[in-house]
Here is the input.
Amino acid sequence: MHQVVQAVILGLLIGGVYALMASGLTLVFGIMKVINVAQGALVILAAYLSYALFSHLHVDPFLSILIVTPAMFVLGVTVQLVFVRSLRGPDAPELSLLVTWALALGIEGVLSVIFNTTYRVSNPSYADRSWDLFGYQVSVVRAFAFLASAILLGLLSLLLTRSRFGRAVRATVQNPTAATLLGVDANRVQTLSFGLGVSLAAAAGAVYGVIYPFNPGSHYDLISRLLSIVVLGGLGSLGGAVVAALAMGVIQAVVAVEFSPTWSAFSFFVVLLTFLLLRPQGIFGVRERTL
Amino acid sequence: MTRNPARIAVLAAGGVLLLSALAAGGAAATHARAASGPIKIGISLSLSGDFSDPGKAAQRGYKLWAKVANAKGGVLGRKVQLIIRDDTSSPTQAATNYQTLITRDKVDLVFGPFSTLLSAPSAAVASRYGYAFIEPAGGGPAIFDEKLHNVFFTQPAPVVQSADVFAKFLLSLPASQRPKSASYPALDDPFASPIADRVRSLLEKAHVKTTYKTIYPSEGTDMGPVIQKVASGHPDAVIAGTQSVDAYALVKAMVQQKFNPKFVFLSNGANNPAEFPSKVGAKNVNGIFSTGDWFPQAKNPGNPAFVAAYQKTYGAGAIDPGSAEAYAAGQVVEAVAAKIHSIDNKKIISTLHTGSWPTVEGVLRWNSVGEPQGSDLLVEWINGKMYPVYPPKIALHKPVVPKPAWGK
Here is the structure.
């Protein structure tokens, strides 16, 4: 039992970080029907920015969120304006898949040139510490990462429920045409939301770089995980993404401890497929009505 | 139009015959070339892509050897000229590059690219044209399983046997210090898990109990749960088949879970002095064992001169063993050419299968498929530095056992 509880703790802590990454992906999909497959690469880009700030200017990786997030917001807005917005017509979602994939490969290439392909990790002084809670080991870095993710997701939720921008976003998710008729500037909402999605990737990246060693190619693994989280949670559902990410963390950790790490990634997909057979719209997704 | 299988078979057979004829022609052309002008050596290297860092390390070694050799007047009185083509870390491109180097650039000799993945298909191309394939970085089973007779791997031991030296070291300890139990987590990789398996079989024969063994997948595995399971068996030793990123994550997970076994061995990742301390924290390296094929302090033939020349050319930073391995390939050619007074590939191949060859990697000998017959060196991190500690005759420091606490 002790083993399982310890694994659940490890899984929840890491799941929180994945929730933060996935939140940006699901938000952008909900509003624009764009699957941003560059989300993983953007996480890694932010991890490098945070790493560079830490190794050259000794900025704490968690504090670097305050610098990296706004910078990446600007990048996100620019990408949306230059590449994504110009895609029109019924094929726009499929085209956006290609455009964002090109973006991912571009980011990977630039990072390989600047930072080479060796693995990096930010090692702040508290990286090795852990708390002993009732006989369970809780890594300080992972606890901070979980806490930072929870705070940012809380802020995001406040933004979406309490602000005028948030209302416009939710209106656009529910019915873009009606939202436009009621005076919501859909273009502006889309651009700002894309920027927001990228800045969530940025915050997650700063945190990711403290927990895992990464290199420019790390985004392939990330994006496959993020897409499965978003699908399990229900495309466009923020709450769903959070629940799915935590579930992924816990399932993988428990399976790794109780059975074998070989099956931990696979087991999550078994849960995903079973769930989708029973509830194709995901945990909190809405079934689309057709005439 | 219907396809006639017999006709296709005939065409295919014809194609194969034509290719073999061309290949034979190529080989004949090589042997017939006049022995004048510089000796051209063709190399495909990963100068871009995933393996660009180790690829460039090998490039530094090759170039340094050519520079040093040319300063002494070259090989057999002829200058050495390296022709290096970038393979972008792709095995197909590497094979194509060797084809081009041999048939179009008409090089006299070839040296190997980086890693087994690229060396195996490249060695086959070289073999087809009758070229010796002296290679510094392809030490995995995939290359030796091809059973080619033109391959010569310029490191002391094949990769899967690299950790045998750790098992020998443990069994050389007095019974009171020897581990009673061990756990074997290993990466799902041909360069990682077979190493741990070999050590396990050696130790099980010596009655060291296995508390746990597992294989974890390569990408993005969270090592937290893996180490949690390893720690639950309270083993005296953790012997892990690792590459790089998983080795770092494994150490960090052990530190965070305050799990400090008496022995920690990591097959790879921990033997990189330039990377390991910065990834796991400089205070967490002490007492960790790994293996290595080369050290700056080693007294191997030509090594002090190599280190001095390297630092003069590239600065005083840490030297990647990949540079030494590539340099050794050059030393082998120099030695064999001096012995047979020729750079004829056929003669080189037959000569290298006999005798022993002094290099910065040690004195090398090969079996018929190019597997080196030596042993790697056991290294341990002591006071923040990596030292060869076993076998005793090459040790620069006494091994420290059991492992000190993390952070000490």
User: Anything to note?
Assistant: Residues 39 and 388 of chain B are 37 Å apart (CA to CA). Chain B has a mean pLDDT of 89. Chain B has two domains: 39-159+299-364, 163-292+376-390. The first strand of chain B starts at residue 39 and ends at 45.
